[in-house]
Amino acid sequence: MSDTILNGDITVYYLDENRRKQLVWTGSVGETYTLNEVYSALADLFDETGQMDDGSVMSAETPVEYTIGIIDSGDLDPWYVTYDCMEHITGGALRTSSWARVTSSNTGVVVVPVTTNTIVTGDIGFDISGATTGNGTLLEVIEAGTTDYLVIRPNSSAAGDDFTTASQVITCNGNTADQSGAASFTGEQIWANLYSIGTIESDTHIYLYQGKVSDATRVRINSITDSTQDWWGDGHIDVCVYTKNYRVATFPIIDSGYIKAFARKGSTYYDNFETSTSVTSGGRNPVPINTASDLDNPTGYKSITFTASSGNWNVGDEMSGDSSNARAVITQIDSPGATQTVHYYLLDDPQTDFSSGVETLTNEDDTGTGTKNGSAPANQGPALATWFTNDAFPTVAHANTTADINDDSVDEYYGITIDCNQNPLSEVYEWLKYITRDGGTTTGNTDGVEGEQYVGAEAYLKYTGSVSGTIAEGSDVTQETSGATGIVISHDTTNKVILLRDVRGTFATHATTHTLTDNDTSGTVEIDSAATNFAPNKQASFGSFPGGGTFFGARGVLLIDYVSSDENNFSLVSVDGGTYARPQAYSITVTQLVGTDESTTTDDRVTVFRLTGEGGDIDKTEFSAYGSEVIGAATLDVDTAIPQDVPGKTTGGVLRIRDASSNNANYRIRYSSWLNNGGGGTDGRFTLANTTGTTTAGTDTNTLVDSGASFTTTARRGDLVYNTEGGGAGKGYAYVTSVDNDTTLQLDRNISGQTDGDAYELNCVPIAMNTADDVYVPLIDRYATSSTTSVSIIYVSQIYFRARVRNVANATPIKPFEVDSTLNGANTSVQTVRTTDTIFT
């Protein structure tokens, strides 16, 4: 007859009860006991007269390390504790003894994988048998989706009770299951004990990951009875986690015993810690975790709207849904009152959102109650593209790249590129926190792993020799001698630099004995120059933004396409550990404009030209041409180095050519970047925003059609179009007046003889250049796309400039606006005076 211990929460079944001999949890869901309490209660039970004929259940090696199974030498069958029961145990580690079945000598315990399963937990304790082989007692049913697992105590150690037939029908208590094509598994089990220490924010849920990243077996640890959630609550944890894989023959140790803990609640600084548990005893393992409020990450990512509410509702309060059981923290309240809209981020595991229908809501921190409307929760903040200034999400790419952040003409190496997509860093930072939060499960921006477990770079390697084969980005690698492992984020084969994430062990350098091997491609290289392990940025995987002032990038992170006003608001660390910032830059901004987009022909035309001095002329002799280009060239060289205060080194701009052989005729050309020493000597080189193609049906002298083009991304109003058909001078040039769509451009003049089938280029050199030709670069030269336009200028010395705004195409034409000003160590703004031109018709 079974007994109970610990207030009836654990039931002890004996061998005489159909060979059960097991501990089963029969208590409430949230109750827990320490392993010492279980051990002591069992010791107290088994020193009674009625239990003297039973073998001991557990032994204690230390106050926090215990063993269950065959403890006494004369015992023949091991005690079994269910995996479910172990989810209620804290304060110590447990290992098994004699669970591993050995045919003919040890009965042990087996795990049988099954499909098409109708055997349920109510069948535990009944006889179970295979149609071909195996007889025993069912001890536990572990439901795991397509394949379930039946834990069985065989009737004997004889081969006939092995359950080794790969495919057979198994029957228990009238229910059946199909053995899934694999023989039974058996082995010893180890439960390691993990307990967190440190200071964490309220309602923080610590979650765990286990398994290898390198072979995609790392998964979030969930309950044995519910694959959608773990079994502990919010706050610090004290849990027992099995470390051997019962789903594989011989129960191998999972990922060498490593388990990784994360704490990533919304609006907080994150943390994570990886512990290496004992592979023999499990051990009691501290997990230091510290989180704090992140004032620069205040925005929620969902919202719901009320149809009625009463009481108090405040930012920071926790609210819950009575039917959905969702829990969330309020981050913003729009239109406070009965029909307010509340923004929030979710809590709990799993993170359940509010109902799509009507639901009663309760403020858990105050007196508020309310009714949610019948609409599904809406995306908000960093989960919503239109929340961003540029109405588009940033993106992250993992691959080698170089950049000259400090403009010293020497590139630095990076491996992770954040494309801000012309959004301010404050928004980009919140988005980076959003994609890596608890619940961030997409992989597109986090190098193929779920965002909630993404950590970032952790090691940098450099070599001098050559690679045999390929060391591929995304591969897992192992180093000879040191045994260190990692995943390749980026591999710059030109500069011979490798950046790694998810690192184990410490990399080292040596001329011959520290070969790095790509375990996926078998490529190898000797790491003989540099090897550095470094700590990732735990608070925020891609970089921190303390006080909303400066973004400090994690090592290896590069920012691109940032707004010009943020140019001096970040500090980056290259792969090899150097710290870099942009040279001091200031902006010239023109305000009070009419601007929409590149396809709107009624927007303002804005220019800002550099002057020769205060009150002087526009400097049209800024550079002399190097004089080597022919018509159609995609680069343009000048005969002196380009100074730092020329805009668009990496982001592009507009230049103008004065053709000395044609009475200084002007040509306007858009460029994508510039660099020095690009063409020879000390000259500078402009790389033009060049696109080539062939016209198709619909083309005429002032309309260019190319059915294979992508003009909405490659062309802009004001771009130079050159018809190069026939070679030489071709058929001539024009400027784009309208980007109608991806395939059609309207031109400002006729190109004589232009028809379909002609070769053309956008933004190419339109004349045969010679050294008498001049090149100059407007600080701004564009059509307005919003009410303001600006340019960031690296400050070298005072710049005198002339700003002009013109527009008679608009329904309200204006008189030409012009003003002179100066850039001198501070941001400068020019406000357009819009005087209606009443004479223009």
Describe, in plain words, how this protein is organized in 3D.
With 841 residues, the chain is mainly β. It folds into eight domains: 3-97, no CATH class; 110-179, no CATH class; 190-292, Immunoglobulin-like; 302-379; 395-453 and 538-581, no CATH class; 457-533; 584-619 and 780-841, Immunoglobulin-like, CATH 2.60.40; 691-762, Elongation Factor Tu (Ef-tu), domain 3, CATH 2.40.30. Helix content is 4%, strand content 38%. The protein has four helices and 64 strands. The chain has a seven-stranded antiparallel β-sheet, with no helix packed on it. Strands 5, 6, 9, 16, 19 and 23 form a six-stranded mixed β-sheet that branches. Strand 62 and strand 63 form a beta hairpin. The longest helix has 12 residues, at 35-46. It is elongated.
Brief overview:
This protein is mostly beta strands and 841 residues long.
Reconstruct the topology from this structure.
Blueprint: E1 3-5, E2 10-13, E3 22-25, E4 33-34, H1 35-46, E5 58-62, E6 65-69, E7 80-81, H2 83-86, E8 89-90, E9 93-97, E10 110-115, E11 127-130, E12 135-142, E13 148-154, E14 169-172, E15 175-179, E16 190-197, E17 206-210, E18 219-220, E19 238-242, E20 258-263, E21 268-269, E22 271-276, E23 284-288, E24 292-293, E25 302-310, E26 318-321, E27 327-334, E28 341-346, E29 359-363, E30 369-372, E31 378-379, E32 395-403, E33 412-419, H3 425-435, E34 457-462, E35 476-479, E36 485-492, E37 497-504, E38 515-518, E39 524-526, E40 530-533, E41 543-544, E42 551-553, E43 557-560, E44 570-573, E45 579-581, E46 585-591, E47 605-610, E48 623-624, E49 635-638, E50 653-659, E51 665-676, E52 684-688, E53 691-694, E54 703-705, H4 711-714, E55 720-723, E56 732-739, E57 744-747, E58 759-762, E59 774-776, E60 780-783, E61 789-794, E62 799-807, E63 814-823, E64 828-831
Parallel strand pairs: 3-7, 4-8, 6-9, 16-23, 33-43, 42-44, 46-64
Antiparallel strand pairs: 1-2, 2-3, 5-6, 9-16, 10-13, 10-15, 11-12, 11-14, 12-13, 14-15, 16-19, 17-18, 17-20, 20-22, 21-24, 25-28, 25-30, 25-31, 26-27, 26-29, 27-28, 29-30, 32-33, 34-37, 34-40, 35-36, 35-38, 36-37, 38-39, 41-42, 44-45, 46-61, 47-60, 47-62, 48-59, 49-52, 50-51, 50-59, 51-52, 53-58, ...
